[in-house]
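Possible regression after last week's pipeline update?

I re-ran a chain I had predicted before the update to compare outputs. Posting the input and the new output here so someone can diff against the archived version. Not blocking, just want to make sure nothing changed silently.
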Amino acid sequence: MKKIILLFAGLFLFYACLNNEDQINFGYEILPIDEFTTPIAFTFGEKDTVKVKYTLKNSCYNFDNIYYEYQDTARIVAVRAIVNLDENCTDVSTQREFDIVVTATQREDYVFKFFKGLDANGNNIFEEAVVPVN
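New output (post-update):
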């Protein structure tokens, strides 16, 4: 039994010391919404689309997904990007658009809070849009 434990400990130590140069060093960043378009109203039980535009700051930024958080009848919306931390980046920003398909599952008005960035004190800034449900 001791030999098996020693073997596994040796394998673990060997694996921990392997060269990890091939791994990409990356991080995540929440990006603000530049512009958005919401429908005039949702119809209960049906799908509709909310369009958002965002900007990737440079060539090291890649779209990961839409940050979409539920808070009662409100929805917080932002863009989550993957940032390559080891790459030499070109300073070319790129604006992209993403369509969010929303199924109206609540009878109350939807309050969308679109992330617009941070203020001077580091607090989140949101722009709200209210979409009624018919």
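Follow-up from reviewer: compared with the archived run. The chain has one domain: 22-131. Marking as no regression found.
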